[in-house]
Amino acid sequence: MISIIELSGMQFYAYHGVLPQETAVGNQFTVDLQIEVDVTRAAFSDDLCDTLNYAEIYALVEEEMAKPSQLIEHVAGRIIQSLKEAFPSIDRIVIKVTKDHPPMKGRMKGASIVLSEDFDEE
């Protein structure tokens, strides 16, 4: 059974950026996450122990978002690594980190980075 856990539209206020004003004032960020993991047992057992706990995933993302970085690429990479370390059963992660109001000339909804990583079973 192929299964994907999605946590969409997670909102965080954080201090990521290259410009001094970004690290001083901060900005709103949105994180969208897809985690491919086998939840076949949970589909039949109805037991939280047979899947990933969404609250624990959110807490880990929140913890990483609280650590200032210059680049959202770095933030996304840290989140991927932390999730894989915390949940070794993960097969694949796709993450999108969006700076909702980037300090750029012109209007836009946001600037995003999307990273994905597949993990080989050992």
What does this structure look like?
By secondary structure, this protein is an alpha+beta fold. Helices cover 32% and strands 30% of the residues. A four-stranded antiparallel beta sheet has the order 1-2-3-4. It is elongated and about 50 Å long.
The order of strands across the largest sheet is 1-2-3-4
Helix content: 25-40%
Overall residue-averaged pLDDT value: 94
**What is the helix/strand order?**
EHEHHHEE
Q: Helix/strand-derived class? A: alpha+beta
State the end-to-end distance: 19 Å
Q: Report the total helices.
A: 4
Low-pLDDT segments: none
Gyration radius from CA atoms, angstroms = 16 Å
Strand percentage: 25-35%
Q: What is the molecular shape?
A: elongated
Total number of beta strands: 4
Sketch the major β-sheet: 4 strands, antiparallel
Write the layout of secondary structure elements.
Layout: E1 4-14, H1 20-25, E2 27-36, H2 40-45, H3 54-65, H4 72-86, E3 92-99, E4 111-118
Antiparallel strand pairs: 1-2, 2-3, 3-4
Helix pairs in contact: 3-4
Search tags:
4-stranded antiparallel β-sheet, 4 strands, 122 residues, 30% strand, alpha+beta
